[in-house]
Specification:
478 residues, alpha/beta, Aldehyde Dehydrogenase, Chain A, domain 1, Aldehyde Dehydrogenase, Chain A, domain 2, 2 domains, seven-stranded mixed beta sheet, six-stranded mixed beta sheet, 14 helices
Amino acid sequence: MSNYADLKLFIGGEWRDTPEHIAVVNPATEEELGRLPRARVSDLKDALSAAEAGLGIWRRTSPRTRADTILRAAGIMRANQEEIAQSITAEHGKPLAQARLEVIRGAEFFEWDAGEAMRVYGRVIPSAPGTKISVHHHPIGVVAAFSPWNFPMSQPARKIAGALASGCSIILKAAEETPAGAIHIVRAFEEAGLPAGVLNLVFGIPSEISEFLIPHPAVRLVALTGSTTVGRHLTSLAAKHDTRVLMELGGHAPVIVCEDVDVQKAAISGAVRKMRNAGQVCTSPTRFFVHESIFDEFAEAFAKRAAQTVVGNGVDAGVEMGPTANERRIPVLSALVEDAISKGAQLRTGGKRHGDKGYFFEPTVLTNAPNTAQIMQEEPFGPIAIINPVRNLDDAIAQANSVPYGLAGYGFTNRADYIDRMIDEVEVGNFSINTLEASLPETPFGGVKSSGYGREGGTEGLESYLTIKNVWYATDGT
């Protein structure tokens, strides 16, 4: 691809190459897009030094100036939407229309947090005569952030936006499979005039980078969007050094479909959303618990629409679903389907690799999967939906809460009593009713149980990047 991003590290305000490289591959064509520099220990040392120097500048920069810089960068991203989207589709495979929307969503994260930079309020606490007590917020310090491959633009944006709006500096380790989104973000901030060292970008072997950065005393926050397994490892490593963590981890989103809904509408919307981003979304609706009285109609309509999904290269017109992001996903998804079938699940459609070129997997629907099936306990992170019948709402809520994950959940009903119960009883950090949207820049996003700690977005989104200082001032000077 001639206009694919120029792959470099960004450290201390300068782009750099290294002797060792990692191939970046188009998952739809299996063709190499470019060679990504792999950070060495010397590069990581430089990034830490640069981030410490950048923090000294940025934390003393006024909130208004920080906000203005962030907004300029967001405007540059919007102006370069098509170029960025083309790069994302090339490296990730998602349809170009979805990549364009992701660029805008990334810009919106920056725009929201730019506003929040102006609203980091302290407070004055009423006190006795001769004393003044106040609460102040300060940037936590250098942030070591890790973003995943499934959303190359919007996931790095969440981490960078929160850090910069709070006055922190940041070292971002973005995904090696999909580096272009983060590179375009950094280029926008470079053009917007962000001081050198405030934003640094590295790539390489994830374990080497995390094990070097996290123990360093300058790093005061570890922010990750990733799997629960990786999250636990990084949290354990951070805990050894008393370093705070912000973890947005895996999910296995339940969808409760009650007997009073428009069955066709709910089924079709569920099938369309399940296949978005090839199911590679931490909030993807996956475990559908459908009232037994409408189960057959729902499952038939869902499977029919899923089978009609147009699968192909994301740059082609009319494509609804691209490939999975890498080749290693294909055997994992195949094994999950085979295990479920061996334990009694019925395959309604799909179930295997699509075509013989590219990392495509068929839109897949399983029904009546027992809880002993691996896919009922493990997030497939692919285009697979499971639809099971339930007797009543009690049964549905129990099934929804039966896994250790709690990132997002969904409910379809028009009954107020059902809505109240689901809001109160479904154990997730984000719950949506009669829609499969999970978050916006202005809403807090994060999980419960094994799905993480802390929140990104909303008025709560900067909390992890700030420390709180209580100040007690005796006015008489004694």
